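Worked Example 4.2. Read the sequence first, then its structure tokens.
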Amino acid sequence: MSVVRRSNAWVFLAAVTVNSVFFLNFCATLFRCGCASFWSGADARCNIHLSGSHHCPWCAQGLAASLIPWALIAAVQAAIAFWPRQMPVAVRLVFAVTAFPAAGGVIAVVYGWASGYWK
């Protein structure tokens, strides 16, 4: 594996780690659903456990459904990390990590509107 491909792989791993660690915090910020970090109860206080309320679109269909937005964000991060254009590793890392809230925000808006969460 070339040095460039190896550094791109490290950029992707770093960015997707940020995505993985803070995904539920991001969910809670966007949907105000009650989710917390993995080490603070995860979805234990999510509104999916309350009858008669809007259910968080990322949590409502279970783990498999919440992997879809995570994977879409990771795909954007991979596209940035492995983009063939030359750029400094630090710049590529900043763009890949920044893709988490940027792409995640767009994906959340689509999920929220499609599910009627913000009616």
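Now turn to a second chain, presented in exactly the same format:
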Amino acid sequence: MGSWGPVEPLIVGFEEMTKKPSWQDADLLLRIDDLAARPETRVALDWFRKNHLGVRGTSETLIPREAPEYEYVQRFLELFETLGTLVKLGVLNEELVHERWMTRAPWDFLQPTIRRERLSSGPAYASNFEWLAERNRRWSQRRSRRRVG
């Protein structure tokens, strides 16, 4: 639990995702895409897609702080913590983010590394990334059920 106490995420109901994205949402998402297009973030995204897409993290996939790849963890946190914060606070349309970003896959892989970092940083470390990834997982499941049914 840590010294910060439990993290109480703001849970926005899925019914609120029916709000149509605005032009401001689209503009903000494009600005976030610019963040993702920065060379250091692009390298991290390419590394993940090439080597770890679809891999669930384990204790064997912990990324040591001294490893060059640890910089990639920081780029993912910068990107997905920002997205999670904006969606959770209602600044950015959630449906639009889920359509654009599959946050659950990087979360699944990085989860052991992030949990290790929480031991020294506290439970709020990457909590918006985790929140968004879990929302993305449920969104994807609902979408799959709609296609089947």
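Notes for the reader: The chain has six helices and no strands. The chain has a mean pLDDT of 87.
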